[in-house]
Amino acid sequence: MAASLCAVCIEVGMVIAHLFGVADHSFQNLWFRLAGLAFIVCCVTAVRCIAHLAFDKALKRDYASGARVPCELVRVSVKCPWLALVVLHLRFTSKPYALVDR
To answer: What's the predicted TM-score (pTM) here?
Structure first.
């Protein structure tokens, strides 16, 4: 999900560059590809950090519980304002989770 969002940002950047007249061969060289890869890695790392911060905030405000033991089921409230980021963090860390209504 995070990498897909970053790839869309790269595509938008390419469209904008085309509108300003950048030549096509500029997008086919090794440096552009390496820059694109570096951008995706940086974006995924940033999203992972933001998701971790959201998970910590959810734990502190009692929207999530049960994360003390590594294999324990983490219960996340559906009322959590950062639900998408919390679930993303749990998927990044491969922790089992359940959505609860509380």
So the answer is: 0.76
